[in-house]
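Module 6 notes. Inverse folding takes a fixed backbone as the condition and produces residue identities as the prediction. Think of it as a translation problem where the source language is geometry and the target language is the twenty amino acids. Below is one complete input and output pair. Work through it position by position during the lab.
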């Protein structure tokens, strides 16, 4: 098995193991026959299993969201970790939804009114905390997974999961049952919960004090066209060390930040680093596709900046001496850092720079100068309006060694998905395809330039999106109601 495949599986395997341990501890704490004796006990036991696994996954997702260096290395890069973070969040929600439904179904085997009692205030604070936590998680999951929101709102939605988890933890540890049967299980779940809460506090509550960041000052702002801006920053003290292709999180302070509301001024935004390692200045190149990136058009030299990073594993530092780089639009940014860092031991590279129109291909003079100085670096500009989309068929015609080359791609998600599929059909192994897919709030796999923020007018103009939101938001409650109605009808003999 390829080394990159092993690295990609390492993190998910650790997550699965950590979520499976409480189930194993619960299963070994009492005979299973007694726990699955009759419908009531069987459904309750299944609900407990879902709660243990779901709560564990929830706690671990808070750890993944804290951007801890050891955890990033475990997953082989922050972009890979955040992909797992998204899937793990969906898994946690599904398991906790199953817990709610199974608990209601177990009580419905006694009577419909017994099940309904769990949804009433008289059920007590323990149950009420669980209901509130699940309801809040439902809303946050819907917004995160199915609503295209701006980066600013997305960050606050993600932070809300820490508060939601506090309610869920209170429900878990004050409910009589599984944890009381096993001291080891109790300690394990308490440890996971503490780890999750600590990660939340580290990142979202005390991040300004605990997270290591560096201070910079904006040295110059170069507006390359009406949408694209290059920002050059110089360090206040020790410069940031990074590898070619990595990215960082940056927050621009006064006077630039004064145009935003107070609660939005300290948010950090991810951008690829375009400067070469070893340069004292730090460069990023930004395309105006959202509120914040559009506001960067007003950024001026002298503004203070705080950076965090670097992150990411997208890099040309691979053992393969034959590489093909493919950039789509602003996806050129990590390749700029790679091209600027080429040295005497650089691999043989064909670089395809895909744009809508030729004027949108920025930094061409510099890239052509690098190509003229380096025999093993060849640049091809691919304008879509004249040449169409770059395809695997075209690459195969040009390169007989396509199957043995490492292919690095950065661009819109649709472009990445299309090339991944096409190249796989052409015999390019999965481990030889490397894509920079990092991004927040990219549900729907839409290109960033086409992304729309949530608004009332947007929902009115897109009935399908509105229907999807309602379907997801009410799927859990309607399923629970269906179980209760079914139990009531069975009880009445109807």
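Target side of the pair, the amino acids:
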């Amino acid at each position: 098995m390829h080394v990159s495949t092993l690295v990609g599986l390492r993190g998910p395997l650790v997550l699965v193991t950590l979520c499976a341990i409480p189930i194993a501890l619960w299963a070994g704490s009492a005979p299973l026959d007694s726990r699955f004796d009759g419908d009531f006990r069987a459904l309750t036991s299944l609900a407990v299993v879902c709660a243990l696994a779901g709560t564990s996954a929830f706690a671990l997702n808070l750890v993944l969201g804290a951007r801890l260096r050891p955890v990033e290395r475990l997953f082989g890069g922050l972009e890979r970790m955040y992909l797992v973070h998204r899937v793990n969040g969906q898994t946690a929600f599904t398991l906790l939804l199953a817990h709610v439904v199974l608990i209601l179904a177990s009580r419905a085997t006694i009577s419909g009114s017994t099940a309904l009692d769990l949804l009433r205030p008289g059920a007590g604070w323990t149950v009420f905390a669980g209901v509130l936590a699940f309801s809040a998680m439902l809303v946050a999951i819907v917004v995160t997974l199915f609503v295209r929101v701006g980066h600013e709102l997305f960050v606050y939605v993600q932070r809300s999961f820490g508060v939601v988890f506090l309610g869920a933890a209170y429900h878990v540890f004050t409910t009589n049952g599984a944890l009381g049967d096993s001291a080891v299980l109790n300690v394990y779940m308490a440890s996971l919960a503490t780890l999750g809460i600590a990660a939340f506090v580290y990142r979202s509550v005390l991040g300004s004090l605990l997270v290591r960041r560096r201070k910079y000052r904006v040295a110059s702002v170069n507006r390359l066209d009406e949408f694209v801006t290059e920002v050059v920053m110089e360090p206040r003290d020790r410069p940031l060390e990074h590898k070619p292709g990595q990215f960082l999180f940056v927050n621009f302070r006064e006077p630039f930040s004064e145009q935003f509301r107070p609660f939005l001024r300290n948010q950090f935004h991810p951008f690829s680093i375009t400067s070469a390692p070893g340069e004292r200045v730090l460069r990023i190149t930004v395309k105006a596709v959202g509120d914040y990136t559009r506001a960067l058009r007003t950024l001026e030299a002298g503004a203070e900046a705080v950076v965090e990073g670097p992150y990411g594993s997208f890099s040309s530092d691979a053992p393969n001496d034959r590489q093909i780089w493919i950039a789509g639009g602003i996806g050129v940014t990590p390749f700029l850092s790679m091209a600027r860092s080429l040295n005497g031991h650089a691999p043989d590279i064909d670089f395809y720079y895909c744009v809508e129109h030729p004027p949108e291909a920025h930094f061409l003079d510099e890239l052509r100068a690098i190509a003229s100085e380096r025999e093993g670096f060849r640049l091809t500009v691919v304008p879509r309006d004249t040449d169409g989309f770059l395809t695997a068929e075209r690459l195969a015609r040009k390169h007989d060694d396509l199957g043995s080359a490492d292919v690095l791609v950065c661009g819109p998600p649709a472009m990445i998905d299309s090339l991944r599929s096409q190249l796989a059909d052409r015999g390019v192994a999965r481990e030889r395809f490397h894509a920079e897919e990092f991004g927040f709030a990219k549900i729907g796999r839409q290109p960033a330039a086409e992304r729309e923020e949530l608004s009332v007018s947007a929902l009115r103009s897109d009935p399908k999106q509105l229907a999807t939101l309602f379907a997801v938001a009410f799927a859990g409650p309607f399923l629970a109601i269906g179980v209760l109605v079914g139990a009531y009808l069975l009880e009445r003999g109807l």
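Reference fact for the lab report: The chain is about 55% helix and 15% strand.
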